[in-house]
């Protein structure tokens, strides 16, 4: 059964949000399952090593979401104009180039990031990113055409492949290497989707009005911003290690706490980038006003999350992951509040990229990331500077986005 409105002109409906929301819930559960299996199977120090690779791939794949954003915007904004470029081919080319760049530059940085299984980590990071670039481009094409069922199916396939490999690793005692493979397993999900779904194949063949150079220019701005956002969202363990040295067992606990407190908000928002961009494109006449409802929802859910994290978070951490994972309620509550700040920055970023304000979008996320990195250098305990960096850094980015949106005049462009 196809989507009710598989064309760029259809509105973003409640049913589309429900479908993507359901897929997001499944993906989130699978992500939690991978983290749970890794934390139970590995000691905190080993989990810290895994988390850095998980974060490194999250950083790289998060940057690749620039392809999703630009593909969604181009398809969504088209009004019957003739096609001039093939986003899927561009995505594949970007993926090959990114993989080569990682492999060729790895001698310069890999020793500072990967402390175990370095060669395997570099190989998996390169190949996984190449596949994910095609994956995220296909997501953008499906979102732009309102094919939300296919969009959700691709997300779920990615998540199920990851948790399947992680479960196999746990069962056979594969160790750290198994979880490294699990991290990138979903990067081949687009192959299965194209093989099984005629709608996905039709979306993959779509041309967009912008020529290849213009499309790549937009992708460049979006990727820069998406990469900066990925540092704060998925790649934070990498940033934390780069500014702290050896994280050890304490770092494993802090990284797990950061991951668990932000996932309930940021996993759905990241998964719904297609919905959000399509929504803000449709609301082009008053994008700042359109931010109010989703921002209020995020703030309300965040306030509830702060309360729950503070009261039951320490018990949950000990019960679910073992007595070696100890964190007090105040830390978990503050980390949840920091997740709200990043979630609001994600919303303003989606509105900015929907307005094709690529430079402002990139500048906002770069400002937030730079501010967070500098705050991590403060001479404070690991826990305190983590909270300060994640709470205060996003405020700079939000200011940049809101100023740009307030000054945008869609009718005159």
UniProtKB/TrEMBL annotation:
Transmembrane segments: 20-39, 45-68, 89-110, 122-144, 151-172, 178-197, 218-240, 252-271, 291-312, 332-357, 364-382, 388-407
UniProt keywords, alphabetically: Cell membrane, Membrane, Transmembrane, Transmembrane helix
Hydrolase listed as a keyword: no
CC annotations in GO: plasma membrane
Location of this chain's protein in the cell: Cell membrane
Topology within the bilayer: Multi-pass membrane protein
Coiled coil: none
InterPro entries according to UniProt: Poly_Biosynth_Transport
Stated name of the protein: Membrane protein
Organism per entry: Mycolicibacterium poriferae
